[in-house]
Structure formats: structure tokens, C-alpha cells
Design a protein that fits this description.
Elements: E1 3-5, H1 9-23, H2 28-32, E2 43-47, H3 58-73, E3 76-80, H4 88-100, E4 106-108, H5 114-123, E5 129-132, E6 142-147, H6 149-163, E7 168-175, H7 178-194, E8 199-206, H8 217-229, E9 234-238, H9 243-252, E10 256-261, E11 277-283, H10 285-297, E12 304-308, E13 315-317, H11 322-325, H12 328-342
Parallel strand pairs: 1-3, 2-3, 2-4, 4-5, 5-6, 6-12, 7-8, 7-9, 9-10, 10-11
Antiparallel strand pairs: 11-13
Helix pairs in contact: 1-4, 3-10, 4-5, 6-7, 6-12, 8-9
Protein name: ABC transporter substrate-binding protein
Membrane topology: Lipid-anchor
Family: Belongs to the BMP lipoprotein family.
Length: about 350
């Protein structure tokens, strides 16, 4: 049975106090009791990003990796959900609680965990921490699991340009941060390289520190409707849970949506709209989570930057929709673009 961890205000205060004491060297038993990075590690934990499990996208992909590890490696997984409007101190408390419970590795799902992992990893040097989508903090016990999102997004741009009948396509970013700008940059470049006359409508749902653009489907739905009204007939959203709203809007209008992170055609929560999910830009988040867990269990924990790109199928474009499989000209263009990227003939931008 999987355990969902929800840390109360009291728990946050207690964990923060415990971390403070450990960092000051007053509770050496806490770090000493952390599991070593060895084959004895049997408990693992995910701390979810905004939107939590059930987002049909990023967090669900991480969960799939942990579930696979449970099934194939015999580990016991724990999950910790984020709270609305939480601070870095809340994340520190959550990670501290998970590490003190003997989980190894402890994985922060998303770049927002970077400041917290930087602190907690110091307090628990025998525990491996995974940080997805960020390389800003490093330590011997931190594995930075990162992806070439721009490369997969380029392929989505090729598919969108080849599929569009109006010559207008849309990009919706959840929050305007550097990570999501990579998605925009790759997508726009792919569209323009395929059809220089195409128009790309771009909109971000929120600006930091407001991260609602990753969690509120109504924002994605409204943005997509605005782009549809301007003639867009293919819309790509990199917006986590909010992206499900854009998929709904496109499907309702009989237009194409492009999913992100997970193969959203196969997500049960989006089954009503699946026929209009042309493809999805996939990130092997599930594989990265599984690989990190396995490395710790094998006694050879991953550390440093672990990059997943197009050449190793770390990112890619899903072909689950039968309608997409029949688009031979689109598939040929996508395959050619993939080969050119892998061969170094196309360099994909990481900023618009």
C-alpha cells in the first residue's frame, strides 16, 4: 500500500527544527541513521511538484517510474504532495521528513525543489537526492536528472506545421521560467524551419512567483480558446495540469492538441479528448526515476548531471494516436528532423 505524505504545520515546524539541529551538528544520530547508498536501500520517496499526482503529465510520469521500481525491484514507495502556496521552508520540511523516515533516494519532482534539496542534502549526506529539471545545485549525493526538452519540442513544431491547415499554431507555457522557454524555443524553431510562413501564437499563463499556470486547467482552457479564436488549429501546451484545459478546448473545437511530458493520449483522465491529441512531447521522467532508484539499490548511486536527450530517446514524440500513424508525410518529416538533430545538422535553440 502506498503512503501519501501530507505534512501538517506542526510537522513542518518539527522537521525544520530537526534539520536546523542536524545542520549545526547537534543531532549526528539523525544523519548517521540515514540509509547508506547501498544495496540495502528498500524505501524510496517522491516529493511531487505543483499539481501533484493526477496531473496526467509530469508528476504522473515520475510516479510511473517509482511504480515500476516497486514492481521490478521490490522497493517500497512513499509519496509527498505539495501544498497550495508553499514556501521553500515547507519543501525543506517535506524532504527532511522523507529522509528521516529512511527513504533513499528522495526525489524532488521539479526545479522548484532546488533550494530545499541544497539544504537537506547537506544534512543527510548518506542519502541520495534526485532533482528533476535543475542543475543549479550540486553535491556528491545529488543526481540532477535533466532533459533536452527543446529537442522534443522541435519535433512537435515540425508535426504542428505539417498538420496545420490554417498556418497558425499555438504555444501555451504554464509559467514563464527558463525551463518552459526551452519548450517554446524548440517548438517555434521546428514550426518555422518547416513552414517559414507559419504563425506561432505564444502565451504564458502566469509569471513567477505565481505558479498557478502549472496547476489550474481553467487557465489553460481560456488561453487555448483565445488562440483558437485567432485561427490556431494546433495547440501545444507545456503547462502541467493546466495543460489539460488547453487539450479540452482544442478537442471541443475539433482541432489538434499536442501533449507534454507523458504520452497524454494514453492518460485515463484525458480519454474523452484523446482522439484530438495528435501527439505528445515525451520526457523519460519515469525512466530517470527508475534508473536512479535502481542505481541506489545496486550500491552505485547516480550523481551529478544525468542528461536525457533525443539521441538516447530521453525525449521524443509519441505516436499512439492511430490518426497520427496514418500521417506518413508528417512522420517522415519528424523522422528526418530527428536524424538531423542527432547527427548535429540541426542545433535546437534553448531560448526564444
Amino acid at each position: 500500500m502506498r503512503r501519501i505524505t501530507r505534512i501538517t504545520t506542526v510537522g513542518i515546524a518539527s522537521a525544520a527544527l530537526a534539520l536546523s539541529a542536524t545542520a549545526c551538528g547537534k543531532s549526528s544520530n539523525n544523519t548517521g541513521s540515514s540509509p547508506s547508498s547501498s544495496s540495502q536501500a528498500t524505501k524510496v520517496a517522491l516529493a511531487y511538484d505543483i499539481g501533484g499526482r493526477g496531473d496526467q503529465s509530469f508528476n504522473d510520469a515520475a510516479y510511473a517510474g517509482m511504480k515500476k521500481a516497486e514492481d521490478e525491484l521490490g522497493v517500497k514507495g512513499s509519496e509527498a504532495e505539495p501544498s497550495q502556496g508553499e514556501s521553500d521552508a515547507d519543501k525543506v520540511a517535506r524532504l527532511t521528513s522523507l529522509a528521516r523516515a529512511g527513504n533513499n533516494p528522495v526525489i524532488g519532482v521539479g526545479f522548484s525543489y532546488a533550494p530545499a534539496i541544497a539544504k537537506v542534502a547537506k544534512a543527510f549526506p548518506k542519502t541520495t537526492f534526485g532533482l528533476i529539471d535543475d542543475t543549479s545545485v550540486t553535491a556528491p549525493n545529488i543526481a540532477n536528472l535533466v532533459f533536452n526538452e527543446e529537442q522534443g519540442s522541435y519535433l512537435a513544431g515540425v508535426a504542428a506545421a505539417k498538420t496545420s491547415k490554417t498556418g497558425t499554431v499555438g504555444f501555451i507555457g504554464g509559467v514563464e521560467v527558463p525551463l518552459i522557454k526551452k519548450f517554446e524555443a524548440g517548438f517555434t524553431q521546428g514550426v518555422k524551419d518547416t513552414n517559414p510562413k507559419a504563425k506561432v501564437l505564444t502565451q504564458y499563463l502566469t509569471q513567477p512567483p505565481n505558479f498557478d499556470g502549472f496547476s489550474k486547467p481553467d487557465l489553460g482552457k481560456a488561453a487555448a480558446q483565445g488562440q483558437l479564436d485567432k485561427g490556431a488549429d494546433v495547440i501545444y501546451a507545456a503547462a502541467g495540469l493546466a495543460g489539460s484545459g488547453s487539450i479540452e478546448a482544442a478537442a471541443t473545437a475539433g482541432k489538434w492538441a499536442i501533449g507534454v511530458d507523458s504520452d497524454q493520449y494514453n492518460q485515463s483522465g484525458l480519454s474523452s479528448y484523446k482522439d484530438h491529441i495528435l501527439t505528445s512531447v515525451t520526457k523519460n521522467v519515469s525512466g530517470s526515476v527508475f534508473n536512479l532508484i535502481k542505481s541506489v539499490k545496486d550500491g552505485k548511486p547516480e550523481s551529478g548531471e544525468i542528461r536525457y536527450g533525443l539521441a538516447t530517446d530521453g525525449v521524443g514524440l509519441a505516436d499512439s494516436n492511430p490518426a497520427y500513424k496514418k500521417m506518413t508525410d508528417v512522420i517522415a518529416a519528424v523522422d528526418a528532423a530527428k536524424k538531423n538533430i542527432v547527427d548535429g545538422k540541426i542545433t535546437v535553440k534553448t531560448a526564444p
